[in-house]
Design brief:
Blueprint: E1 5-7, E2 10-12, E3 18-23, E4 31-39, E5 46-52, E6 58-60, E7 68-72, E8 78-83, E9 92-102, E10 105-110, E11 114-118
Parallel strand pairs: 2-11
Antiparallel strand pairs: 1-3, 3-8, 4-5, 4-9, 5-6, 7-8, 9-10, 9-11
Length: 120
């Protein structure tokens, strides 16, 4: 089973910053997009941001616009999420996702999650 490898989570005070990184294995031949989701306790997983390969078009949830920045690494199979001005409501487990299009069908790969906690 293919897993993405995430790093960079941790505990930070409100107003602080963290950078998450995610690397997809080279066995994923052609990545269409990479993104980050998060899941707070008792809530459903939600999309935070994604970036589309080639065009580098990005999407951000309204709750993180102006505070989070998603970017691709030079190797193409890495994505970063710079999180500034973190708020307590940003707390949760952050999951990386890579999407591949195979025969016209979307195939999604996930990381195992990294904990982000913004608390004083």
């Amino acid at each position: 089973q293919v897993h993405l490898v995430e790093s960079g989570g941790g505990l930070v005070q409100p107003g602080g910053s963290l950078t998450l990184s995610c690397t997809a294995p080279e066995t994923i031949f052609s990545i269409f997009l990479m993104g980050w989701y998060r899941q707070a306790p008792g809530k459903e997983r939600e999309l935070v941001a994604h970036i589309i390969s080639g065009s580098n078009n990005t999407y951000y949830a309204d709750s993180v616009k102006g505070r989070f920045t998603i970017s691709r690494g030079s190797a193409g199979n890495t994505v970063h999420l710079q999180m500034d001005n973190l708020r307590p409501e940003d707390t949760g487990v952050y999951y990386c996702k890579a999407r591949e299009i195979v025969g016209g069908r979307a195939v999604d790969y996930w990381g195992q999650g990294t904990q982000v906690t913004a608390s004083s």
